[in-house]
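PROTEIN SPECIFICATION:
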Amino acid sequence: MLKAIGKNMNMSKLVRTYGTLAGYVILLIAFTVLASGKFLTANNIITILRQIAMLAVISIGQTFVMITGRTDLSVGYSASAMGILVASLMVKHGGINMWLAVLITILVAGLAGLINGLLVAYVGVPDFIGTLGFGYVISGINQAFTKGHPVTNLPAEFELFGAKRLFGVIPNAVIIMLLVLAVAGVILNQTKLGRYIYGVGDNEEATMMSGINTKKTITWAFVLSGMTCGITAIMLTSRLGSAHPQAAEDYLLNSIAAVWLGSTAFHDGQPNLAGTLLGALIIGTMSNGLTILNVEYYFQDIATGLIILAAVILSSMQRNNRK
């Protein structure tokens, strides 16, 4: 009897850990069958990876924040503004060097994250109100600067970050995504900051009582989220060939959805990088597959919404089991 109970517990843990991954495999099989050879091809796989690259990068930053038990609601507004910033730096008033523009954009995005972190961690503003309010400030400044107009005539070499392909095959955006994922993995798994971030998420009070500066840790999580907004903006602006004032606003809900989906995989209800990548893949694959099947956009929204709801419910159940 004890063996049977132990076996059931092991099976339950296996399902909780890899159930979402198994669901994604089933999704791939379903689209492969329904799309009659149009879905599971090398070109379409590369297309999916290219489509999710920017979502994955901004979601990686969101993962840092959500591990601490908070959410950054400014990411869409910030990424949109950073796209305008990097484009303006290169084309306004004669422009500056592309690489300098990219560096400045990432640093300014990190500064925006720092302000969010200070508001939430030190001032004590609830993350929902603080980050959303600051997001509106960023959006307002962005709209006032552009008057709602895009910034165009970007230098041709700027295509490097979103439009070009390595050896004409692998999109550079996918390579950037993998690099960001690798760096984030090192930070979370190989540094004190990463351990502190996980500590805040597991038990903030106990982490603080152990002598760790939890406010500083939370602030750093927001800084990293901000920096990934800058990287996302650079990739998106490069891919579009111009900067639009609202280009990245859809990434807000999708980044949260990707992290929630990912929290149901691998770490039993806790946000994690591998899960976030899987969440972005699920969202991107769903959109790609339904488009190939010529499903109307509103049904795509319904399907995506149902997946997100299921992920939130499952993640909540997993967290309750952990407690």
Summary: The chain has eleven helices and two strands.
